[in-house]
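> example.struct
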C-alpha cells in the first residue's frame, strides 16, 4: 500500500482526500503499489524559499518534487521511500491536479520532456 503523510501548512483549505486519491492513482499507473511519500501544502513564502534554496530560482512555484528512491531496486524488506511533493495552493488555484501529477511523476524518475508529457496526458 502507498502510505501518504499529508500536511497542510498553506493557510487555506485544500482537498486532501482528492489529492491523496490522485497520487495513489498516478503511482498505481506507474506500477508502484507500495511505498511512502510526504505531501505538503505550503504558502507562497515557503514555496519561494524552497525553490530558491533547492533550484536557485527566487519565485513561488506551483509544485516541487524531492525524489528519493524513484523506482530503483531496493534490498528485500526495505520500504520504498518515494520522497516528498510540495504544492502551493495559492499558486495553483483550482487547477491543482496537473502540477500534482507532474510532481509525482518526478518522484518515480521522469524528467521534463516527451516521456513526462505522455504520462501526464494519461491523468488529465
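> example.seq
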Amino acid at each position: 500500500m502507498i502510505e501518504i503523510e499529508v500536511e497542510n501548512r498553506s493557510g487555506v483549505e485544500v482537498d486532501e482526500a482528492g489529492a491523496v486519491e490522485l497520487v495513489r492513482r498516478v503511482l498505481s499507473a506507474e506500477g508502484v503499489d507500495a511505498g511512502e511519500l510526504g505531501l505538503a501544502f505550503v504558502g507562497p513564502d515557503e514555496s519561494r524559499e524552497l525553490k530558491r534554496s533547492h533550484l536557485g530560482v527566487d519565485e513561488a512555484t506551483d509544485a516541487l518534487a524531492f525524489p528519493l528512491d524513484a523506482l530503483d531496486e531496493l534490498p528485500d524488506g526495505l520500504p520504498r521511500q518515494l520522497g516528498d511533493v510540495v504544492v502551493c495552493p495559492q499558486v495553483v488555484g483550482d487547477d491543482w491536479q496537473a502540477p500534482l501529477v507532474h510532481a509525482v511523476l518526478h518522484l518515480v524518475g521522469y524528467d521534463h520532456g516527451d516521456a513526462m508529457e505522455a504520462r501526464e496526458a494519461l491523468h488529465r
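> remarks
The beta strands are 2-9, 35-42, 63-67, 81-87.
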